[in-house]
């Protein structure tokens, strides 16, 4: 049975540790228009990622919210970290964190952002029953650091990472990885990193790209045997 937060997301989708991409490539312009950059001003640089799941709803990581200065705008459909030359910059009017979110462990690291108006871009498909098995190919997208000591990418990046079982992930990271989490990556030079938090992890289900995770946390970036950790959509 879905929890209250899943019901909230379901209603929205039927309604009219901060991380970055390492070892990826620039995403094709105009291909993943549901990806959002979350900003502290309309034209400012994004500080977290997000995903359009309904015309006026963004799904992101709870740890990206409730900070000062606050998130004020979602830039949707833009290829760039900052500016307003493309996409839509829409004001955020409300933040709702998952009721089970734990800021210490980052369990249930989900939040939805309600926008001032509808976006004209298409939302991503969500499959709550999709729980990728180990070694499932997924893609993570964002504007985060491209190396551990770097700076944010100015253009949207993407990288392919394979899922890893929670048991293997916990042993590799020497951290607790609970049922609300999903691990992917662990190969040298391919990972999410600072700045990617809240962004989408997707896979192809029945020939359709579907959202299965939200960038949450990790131990270093792009290191061998250290997968990135995502919030598992099927547990939202």
Structure description:
With 236 residues, this protein is mainly beta. It folds into 2 domains: 4-17 and 33-115, Trypsin-like serine proteases (Thrombin, subunit H, Beta Barrel), CATH 2.40.10; 125-235, Beta Barrel (Thrombin, subunit H). 8% of the residues lie in helices and 34% in strands. The protein contains 2 helices and 14 strands. The chain has a 6-stranded antiparallel beta barrel with strand order 9-10-11-14-13-12. A 6-stranded antiparallel beta barrel has the order 2-3-4-7-6-5. It is globular and about 45 Å long. The termini are close together. Belongs to the peptidase S1 family. It holds the Pfam family Trypsin. This is Peptidase S1 domain-containing protein. Keywords: Disulfide bond, Glycoprotein, Hydrolase, Protease, Serine protease, Signal, Virulence. Residues 1-17 form the signal peptide.
């Amino acid at each position: 049975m879905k929890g209250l937060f899943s019901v909230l997301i379901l209603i929205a989708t039927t309604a009219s540790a901060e991380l970055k991409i390492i070892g990826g490539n620039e995403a094709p312009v105009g291909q993943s228009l549901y990806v959002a950059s979350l900003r502290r001003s309309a034209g400012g640089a994004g500080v977290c990622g997000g995903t359009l799941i309904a015309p006026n709803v963004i799904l992101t990581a709870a740890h990206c919210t409730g900070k000062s200065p606050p998130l004020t705008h979602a830039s949707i459909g833009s290829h760039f970290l900052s500016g307003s030359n493309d996409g839509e910059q829409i004001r955020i009017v409300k933040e709702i964190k998952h009721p089970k979110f734990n800021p210490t462990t980052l369990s249930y690291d989900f939040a939805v952002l309600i926008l001032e108006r509808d976006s004209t871009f298409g939302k991503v498909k969500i499959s709550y029953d999709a729980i990728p098995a180990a070694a499932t190919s997924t893609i993570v997208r964002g504007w985060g650091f491209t190396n551990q000591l770097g700076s944010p990418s100015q253009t949207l990046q993407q990288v392919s990472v394979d899922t890893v079982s929670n048991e293997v992930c916990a042993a590799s990271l020497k951290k607790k990885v609970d049922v609300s989490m999903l691990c992917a990556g662990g190969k040298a030079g391919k990972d999410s990193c600072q700045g990617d938090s809240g962004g989408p992890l997707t896979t192809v289900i029945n020939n359709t790209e579907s959202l299965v995770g939200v960038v949450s946390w990790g131990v270093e970036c792009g290191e061998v045997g250290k997968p990135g950790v995502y919030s598992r959509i099927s547990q939202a």
